[in-house]
Amino acid sequence: MHTDVLEILFTEEAVTERIRELGAQITRDYEGKNPLIIGILKGATLFMADLVKRIEFPVEMDFMAVSSYGQSSESSGVVRIIKDLDQSIEGRDVIIVEDIIDTGLTLVYLKNLLEQRKAASVKLVTLLDKPDRHKVDITADYLGFTVPDHFIVGYGLDYAERYRNLPYIGVLKPEVYQS
Ligand SMILES: O=P(O)(O)OC[C@H]1O[C@H](OP(=O)(O)OP(=O)(O)O)[C@H](O)[C@@H]1O
Ligand code: HPA
Ligand SMILES: [Mg+2]
Questions:
Q1: What positions does the domain Phosphoribosyltransferase occupy (predicted)?
Q2: N or C: less crowded end of the chain, CB within 10 Å?
Q3: The whole model's pTM is what?
């Protein structure tokens, strides 16, 4: 375990197994459809890569980049689009892939935006949910794990752009972001 990590919440093996189950659920639910899987950069990249490998039909992938945290451990509440989709989603079934729902502000914004763009359906899949911190009413359609109200790193989640490559999900030691 890295010295900046207080505790491991989910090991690499536990994450792999949960993603396998989520992929199987999505495979069943989207049988005969052609969903567009939209990964939200950068946090969702590791989860997205593993999830699509567990979906048993060919999928199309696209990415958006938005930011509300920047270098901070607190959401600014303002969602900025840094990279938009490459294509129209009108009439498409879309699945948004996120690493975490914290305040929920990012996903509410994105869901509304994609619905305004006339997607046929918009579903949310998130690796983690931190319900104690929600500021808006939001529920994922597919959820990996619920996490407590601590700052989480690993498996795509960063603090100031670091720790994304940890192969497990852990709690960052508070002294790392308080110093
Ligand atoms: O529910 P919320 O409070 O909106 O927080 C969740 C969002 O914040 C993080 O992204 P961030 O803006 O840090 O960008 P990153 O994915 O590049 O780390 C995370 O990846 C989610 O997108
Ligand atoms: O707990 C978190 N860790 C990393 N990034 C985040 N973005 C929102 N919440 C978190
Ligand atoms: Mg981040």
A1: 12-159
A2: C
A3: 0.94
